[in-house]
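Dear Dr. L.,

I hope this message finds you well. Following up on our conversation about the binding site, I have prepared a predicted three-dimensional model of the protein together with NA7. For your records, I am including the exact sequence and ligand specification that went into the calculation, followed by the structure tokens. Please feel free to forward this to your student if that is useful.
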Amino acid sequence: MSVPSGEIGHDAAPAQGEILGAVVVGAGFGGLYALHRLRALGLSVVGIEAAPDVGGTWYWNRYPGVRCDVPSLLYSYTWSPELRAGWRWSERYAAQAEILRYIGHAADRFGLRPLIRFETRVVGAIYDDNAEVWTVSTNRGDCFRARFCIMATGCLSIPNTPDIPGLSDFAGTILHTAQWPHEPVDFAGKRVGVVGTGSSGIQAIPLIAETARHLTVFQRTPNFSLPSRNRPLTEQDHEQFEAGFEAYLESLQHSDFGRVPPTAETAPIPPRDVQWQRYEALWQEGGGAILYAFPNILTHHGVNDVACDFVRGKIREAVHDPQTADDLCPTDHPLGVKRICVDSGYFETFNRPNVTLVNLRREPLERFTPTGAQTSERAFELDMLVFATGFDAVTGALLAMDIRGRGGRALKEAWSDGPRTYLGLGVAGFPNLFTITGPGSPSVIGNVIHNCEHHVDWLVACIEHMRRDDLQTVEPEAAAQDQWMDHVADVASRTLYPEANSWYLGVNIPGKPKVFMPYVGAGYRHTCSQIAADGYTGFRFEEGTTKSHWPGVQRDAGQAPGPAPGGS
Ligand code: NA7
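The resulting structure of the complex is given below.
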């Protein structure tokens, strides 16, 4: 893969004083698709990306064992038949390197790299009330002025390193799973400590254990994890997927994959033995499907408790030492209300003689020392420390920038009690700003690529509508936003989701308001479509005062309708 030099591409160099159609922040799945669609619409667009290449979270997360927990055939763009025809996944669950190659392939296939300014971090985005444009400033000291500002900054972009005393005294190597070095990390002969047992820790631990002299796992909360049963994809897998693709595409329009279905509240509670058989079959099949075994598994303790018992039983079968097995069994939250982990041999790793589990609930981590870590009970000598401690998720990247809307109001201030959006797509008081997979949308629930595609398709249609009627700005009405946020909270409160201290709620970050951020209700796509069909209910459009007639839009090209999703 060729890595761009970091110089702005030819197409990404606006003329002095030019007002662009749109700036797209972030070059992951959402940002790339937005660039493609907006350019096809006739807008002049520039992408800005902190990394030296495309990929978003898949660029940075390259720790051993990193893989997607969604099957690779599904974790793909759906909008381009050519792209699908030109790509072949090798494994049921793709590893990071293959996903990154796929994203690079998509960027090249559609000539998107020249639109992007790499190795450039957006520090601020300020709306100019008079000119009705956004000024997006970067750490390189440059400014881009654009009519629309599209935040495709991802939900898992800002790594979280907990503030544990003594960390700066530690003399060994310190790594974070979300900022992994590009060169191979050699654990051979090393005493390694891993802090954190979420998805990243659970994927990395078996691999690190294979070569480390000793691995000490510092676990604060045990997690539910299901076996991936990863394997190479066969010819038959590909053929079956292709044969069912059109139906799959259609199903996405109505699917609530990963969300709580409307039948959840009225569904019967299946008998324990029926549940057990189903879980056993899904356990053998592998992957996260247990989460969708029954419509009320995420809403009803009577169902979820059986699933928890089932998985705890599997942990006890896998782990030989009864105390270690006990410590690995989650007991403080229902199954699936923290992002479910999908692993390859995680629990079995604790049978290795070179692996020690430290239960921080029993012996809290007090501090790091120059030579290791000190709990309330023991000292551990370590050469390397790996933080698998997650992210300031969903809002972290948005709030890391100084975003200011009408009247100079800061997003940080507007969201001081937690994020507030309408549909997760826009924020009242921040005209022409779109947040792809923003808080208040399904975002990380379900398949995030499809969620990105849906948001981009929606906002592109909205921009087309504005162009047709020569409207200058769009933003949510405050009342619609309030209603939506109440609805998001209400839906979550009728599930078991709020019962875990998860990053969905923001509680992993000290001081972050405790708000359930993703939308877990059914029918989200239908709601968004209906709102658009009804004339964008809850959004306010203004003709504007500048009468600038679509700066950044090539009027001739712009009159043609944009390509339908699926076109190139
Ligand atoms: P997660 O899921 O947020 O996991 C972070 C882990 O780090 C979790 O086990 C935390 O324990 C632990 N943690 C965080 N702070 C501390 C401190 N101070 N001491 C000890 N342990 C700590 O992040 P991941 O990167 O694994 O996964 C994020 C998402 O990426 C994942 O859900 C997939 O969607 C992909 P806690 O549970 O808070 O007690």
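In brief: The longest helix spans residues 448-468.

With kind regards,
A. P.
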